[in-house]
Amino acid sequence: MVSGAVLGFGAWAGATAHARVNDLPGGPAVNQLNFAPPATRIAEEQHWLHWFMLVICTVIFVLVFGVMFYSIVKHRKSVGHKAQELPEPIWVELGWTIVPLLIVIGMALPATKVLVAQKDTTASDITIKATGMQWKWGYDYLKGEGEGIGFLSTLDVTHREMSNSGKPAPTDDYLLKVDNPLVVPVGKKIRVITTANDVIHAWMVPAFGVKQDAIPGFVRDTWFRAEKTGDFYGQCAELCGKEHAYMPIHVKVLSAEDYSAWVDGEKKKMAAAADDPNKVWVLSDLVKRGESVYAANCAACHQANGKGAGPIKPLDGSAIVTDTDHAKMIQVLLHGAAGGAMPSWKQLSDTELAAVMTYAKNSWSNQTEQIVQPAEVVAARQ
């Protein structure tokens, strides 16, 4: 959980260069040195365990070095002391073997208790799969209230623009704001299953005492039970590529009533957004749909004007975008390109992919009048 202090240091570093930044409730604090304030029982036990171990280590340090320096000062050769051989009684041999053993056992027992509790994911109320991908999180509610809900959580576009400017305004939640936070109810045991679809990531929320690697091809799990409502923040804690810093985690803890209302609203939105991949769209409707998909998923890198930035290639005037062979662009979106610099977007629906491609083909200077129908994406997936 040292990462909590790292988050705090990042907020402090930004504050020194600009105006004052305030502490972020549920996230990093300015000049933060200690762990984040705990919001779960496990996090509280981790705090207690940290101080318990620190006190024991400090006492040992003081005693050992105190005796050592006392011996050096009081028995130095310059005051007339001479080295001599001392007998080694059995109680001394037993003492320096048994006492350290008892200390280790005394430290191991509470640590083991907390570690076992951290891994006990049984009897969970809600199970959520968190999939790490470059560079966002995908959340799927697998069990419990909210089952069937799924969405992507990406860094808010305004924060990416602030970072690209090189002169971000003082913001308490800088690089921690997302478009779709993970929403859970207070007081319920939430099991989080972690995996990844590209490289190793790590799902970490310091206030919950949770940090679990997300590994491609493997499934790991952890859990938390938030004891208070509010917003809590974390970040990917595994170096996952050039945009590792742009992969925040935002968990919104609601009351049981508010959570139920959120679930109801999300399911209504999902029902309204359900698309028939065999539907034939007209250009204007598909461009309008693609504009929102582009703003939510593409504008952070390629910019709202399609010009790209740095190594990010522009879409405005791109040969692949304007090519009449739609299969080339479809393959890039489904499988990524440039060794992962352009990630795969296969998690988007067929209609969303068709819409965003149609939008790119008919925006800025790319007035091609081309339409990519969802059926083309369906065929390319097979």
Describe this structure in words.
- Strand 6 (201-205) and strand 7 (210-214) form a beta hairpin.
- This protein has a 5-stranded mixed β-sheet, with no helix packed on it. The chain has a 5-stranded mixed β-sheet with strand order 4-10-9-6-7.
- It starts with a helix and ends with a helix.
- It is elongated, with a radius of gyration of 27 Å.
- The protein is built from 11 helices and 10 strands.
- Helix 2 packs antiparallel against helix 3, helix 6 (283-297) crosses helix 10 (350-361) and helix 9 packs across helix 11 (374-381).
- The chain has 382 residues and is of the alpha+beta class.
- It has helices at residues 3-17, 41-74, 90-119, 157-165, 256-273, 283-297, 299-302, 319-322, 326-335, 350-361, 374-381, and strands at residues 126-133, 136-143, 150-153, 182-185, 190-196, 201-205, 210-214, 220-224, 230-236, 248-254.
